[in-house]
Amino acid sequence: MSDDMSDLDxxxxxxxxxxDDLPEALxxxxxxxxxxxxxxxxxxxxxxxxxxxDAWRGLLAALGGWRGMGGLATACAAGVWxxxxxxxxxxxxxxxxxxxxxxxxxxxxxxxxxxxxEEG
Length: 120
Fold this sequence. Notes:
By secondary structure, the chain is mostly helical.
C-alpha cells in the first residue's frame, strides 16, 4: 500500500513540476472562434417600436409582473363590486351621489323610556 502511495506521490509531483503550455496555433484558433461568436451575438440598434414595447415591459415589471397585474385586476373587480352592491355597514354610493335621503326609524325619547321601564 505504501508502495502505491509513493508511486502516486511521484506521479503527482511530476504533474505539478511539468508545465504544458498551450500551442500558439491553438490559442489563435480559439481567439478567432471566440471573436466569431461575439460578432454573431451583437444586437442590432433598437427600433422606435422596440423602445415603446420596452416601456410597456418596464411598466409591467414595475407593477410586479403578471402576478402584480392579477392582483391589480382582482382589487379593481372587488372595488367595482363593493361600489355596486355595498355591504350594510357602508353607505350606498348611488344615494350619496344622487343626493337621495334614506329614512330610518329611530326610537323617540318617550318610546325608549317606555321600553326601558318595562319589567321583564
